[in-house]
Amino acid sequence: MSEKLLEIDNLRVIYKTDEGVVQALNGLSFHMDKGETLGLVGETGAGKTTTALSILKLLPDKIGLIEDGSIKFNDFDIVTGSEQNMRKLRGDKISMIFQDPMTSLNPIIKIGDQIAEVLELHRADMTKSEIEARVDEILTTVGLPTSRKDEYPHQFSGGMRQRVVIAMALTCEPQLLLADEPTTALDVTIQAQVLELMKKLKENLNTSMLLITHDLGVVADICDRVAIMYAGTVVEMGTIEDIFEASNHHPYTIGLFGSIPDLENDAERLNPIKGLMPDPMNLPTGCYFHDRCQECMEICTIQEPDNHIVDEKTNHMIKCHLFDRTKHSDDLEGKMHEPAFN
Amino acid sequence: MSQPLIEIRDLKKYFDTSQGPLHAVDNINLSINKGQTLGVVGESGCGKSTLGRAILRLVEPTSGEILYKGENIVDYDVNKMRNTRRDLQMIFQDPYSSLNPRMTVGETIAEPLKVNGFKGSREELSQKIEETMETVGLSNRLINSYPHELDGGRRQRIGLARAIILEPEFIVCDEPVSALDVSIQAQILNLLMDLQDQKDFSYLFITHDLSVVKHISDEIVVMYIGQCIERANAKQLFANPLHPYSIALLHAILAPNLRNRGKPKKVLRGEVTSPINPIPGCRFAPRCAHASERCLNRDIELKEVEPGHWVACTLFE
């Protein structure tokens, strides 16, 4: 039995803005095991980044509020934990790679010093020369020449800056790495380099990784399990095989896959999801996806669906009324979807 | 053979920098037929956007010819060029910064008509705007909205409406979908293809996303540091890429399926070298596994290796 590292249960986060209350996370639940890579997939506004910021408790002060639910990291309760304890956690046990390597480094501090800062804060017992040795070591690990540690961020290209950010995140060998779209800002050939690097480092350090992305190709390459997010909830979750190869899916997942041009099939037209993401200030009743869903039934407009396990072995979960066995067990077979991909 | 709608011969655009000339576009030749889409792919900084802008003379080419229906528009004076631009339009990458925040949707879409001396009455003008909005799938109730009230997909539809209201022949699409979410991206791609079927537009489609370019293009040009290194029919290029850089690019695509999971990947080493004052020779050679002395010190010409498939690489000389 694998050990649970992170457990999020029924998390609700709101942002109080001048225009109204944004419901960013609406009952989000998932867990991560040690050494596992979980892909968190969804479109803009699905609440992916809010999830990461909640785990680090870095939601904007007095605006972003955790209303309900719990986040447990090992045995530590993040929601009720003190700021002092959180500070010890951040950068040491949990660290984050931000999306944009151009803006997540301090432009007026040498990159070597920026990496050393993490160690100065979390490893008070290390001497100056030990810290320096560790900085050299981590730079070599991420494939940067140590001779460049006295240079400033603007002297590096995008791919190299992202390596610096990764080096900073990994210096303390964290147990959990939150990677928020780590390769989105990079070109494809550089993306391939960075992904290979992250895979290798993760294996060596046995770090768990929460990979936030909208790119299903990246997910297929690197993740062990996948959670598909829509309007602040997980609508489908399972192993990588459940999501990419099983035949049962949430209609939103099917729509996501239908929106990507397939390199192997020459489909004339794409099958996108009609309509737009719902307004998080004014979420629809029932299932949040119902007004865009091709399979919408009456119950979907009234009642929020439960999480249904469609495969006991892998814990493949789909939050959709279509998979509610208690309601229409007779015609369940008929309601099952055609295999959507392959 | 019919005359291509757009033909570009030896187009160059160098930018002066303090360190020397930056070769943004270097000796590009291409042609686009009526109703066809030419895809331009390459990584950031390879000159694809500059190419698109130079074709419309939004940046003045350093040298070369741009033939539109057989006439060289580089020689046109300001007035003639202004008239010709009615037929040559552009859709920009970022739907957030390419719209004037102080103009309503209706005003934005009407602007090209007004600039080009629309002669009709007020009713005809608003009818034309409404028609165009309908064509691009924008609801008429948005006519008095401002861009900040709308999401990225709708804003990109405004950009598209503005480009097609003059019924152009040719549209440069500069990464029109890369700022959008996948589900919205698919809606816009479908719309672009439907409009091409209805109105016989020709597109120059600039993108870094290879799966998108294959989906929409008839022919594809692969650029690397200002040069065209391979040019082929879309199917040919994906079935049989020849240039080592094209092969590396195609390998770097991560398909949304598990077939290649866990398999070792050929990862291209190094990064794009500087486009400022490049030395003669293959510009990809520093990153290329097949590089030899033959690749250095001289420019490598594009060579037709099979009908319609051109490649600039010493492996095929």
Short précis:
The complex is a heterodimer of chains A (342) and B (317). With 342 residues, chain A is of the alpha/beta class.
Task: Set out the fold topology.
The complex is a heterodimer of chains A (342) and B (317).
Chain A: E1 4-16, E2 21-33, E3 37-41, H1 48-56, E4 64-73, E5 76-77, H2 83-89, E6 94-97, H3 111-122, H4 128-141, H5 158-170, E7 176-180, H6 188-205, E8 208-213, H7 216-222, E9 225-230, E10 233-239, H8 240-245, H9 251-258, H10 298-302, E11 308-311, E12 316-318, H11 332-335
Parallel strand pairs in A: 3-8, 3-9, 6-7, 7-8
Antiparallel strand pairs in A: 1-2, 1-4, 4-5, 9-10, 10-12, 11-12
Helix pairs in contact in A: 3-4, 3-5, 5-6
Chain B: E1 6-17, E2 20-32, E3 37-41, H1 48-55, E4 63-68, E5 71-72, H2 78-84, E6 88-91, H3 105-115, H4 122-135, H5 152-164, E7 170-174, H6 182-199, E8 202-207, H7 210-216, E9 219-224, E10 227-233, H8 234-239, H9 244-252, E11 303-306, E12 309-311
Parallel strand pairs in B: 3-8, 3-9, 6-7, 7-8
Antiparallel strand pairs in B: 1-2, 1-4, 4-5, 9-10, 10-12, 11-12
Question: What fold name goes in the CATH topology slot of the largest domain in chain B?
Answer: Rossmann fold
Name the structural class of chain B.
Answer: alpha/beta
Specify the CATH architecture of the largest domain in chain A.
3-Layer(aba) Sandwich
Q: Supply the CATH class of the largest domain in chain A.
A: Alpha Beta
Radius of gyration of chain A: 21 Å
The biggest chain-chain interface is:
A-B, 48 and 41 residues
Strand order in the largest sheet of chain A: 6-7-8-3-9-10-12-11
DSSP E strands of chain A, number: 12
Strand content of chain A: 15-25%
Count of DSSP helices of chain A?
11
CATH topology of the largest domain in chain A: Rossmann fold
In the predicted model, the low-confidence regions of chain A spanning at least 5 consecutive residues are: 329-342
Q: How many structural domains of chain B?
A: 2
Helical fraction of chain A equals 25-40%
Gyration radius over CA of chain B: 21 Å
CATH superfamily annotation of the largest domain in chain A: P-loop containing nucleotide triphosphate hydrolases
Mean pLDDT of chain B: 91
How is the biggest beta sheet of chain A arranged?
8 strands, mixed
Helix amount of chain B: 25-40%
